[in-house]
Amino acid sequence: MVKNSFSLNKNKNYAGFTLIECLLALFLLSIICLLFSAVIKNAKVVSEVLKSEKEKEWHIFVIQLENELAGCQFKEIQGNKMIYENPKKERNILIEYKLGKIIKVDNGGYQPLLIDVREVDFKKEDDFVVIRAVFKNEQQYSARWSIIKGNEEEV
After folding, report:
1. Largest Cα span, the chain
2. pLDDT exceeds 80 at position 137
3. Is the four-CA dihedral 11, 14, 18, 24 of positive or negative sign?
4. Integer-rounded Cα radius of gyration of the chain
5. Sign of the CA dihedral 76, 79, 143, 46?
6. Average of pLDDT values for 129-140?
7. Residue 70's domain spans which residues?
8. 73 near 85, Cβ under 8 Å?
9. Does a structural domain hold residue 145?
10. Whether 81 contacts 94, CB under 8 Å
11. What is the mean pLDDT of residues 41-63?
12. What's the total number of domains in the chain?
């Protein structure tokens, strides 16, 4: 009768991980998980900072546009541009949306006022000029100026 027994042959080398190698792998995995969770927590903070940057950029644009158009008279809106007349220099000033930017065109010069814009809508509503802009990150802002005797004031 033959007995079946399991015995380890001490002369054979078995491939496998040692306990130290397993502990080292678990340690590295835990560090990677901790770093990943920290990145996820900070992504929300970074997102909020970027949103506030676009808001600041919009407010700076509105103030700059108000200063650029001080003393100018509103003429009309044609599609994606507003036309103002500068009575002192006897020429038109265009505020135009082109290639993801809101620009000012004055006497052949080109001045970008706002960038990273996906769409802009210029409207004249009663005695107001309304600008609505959507940034590439889907944030929307709007501003309006009242038209009083040819001058604009922000409301």
Report:
1. 119
2. yes
3. positive
4. 32
5. negative
6. 89
7. 46-154
8. yes
9. yes
10. yes
11. 84
12. 1
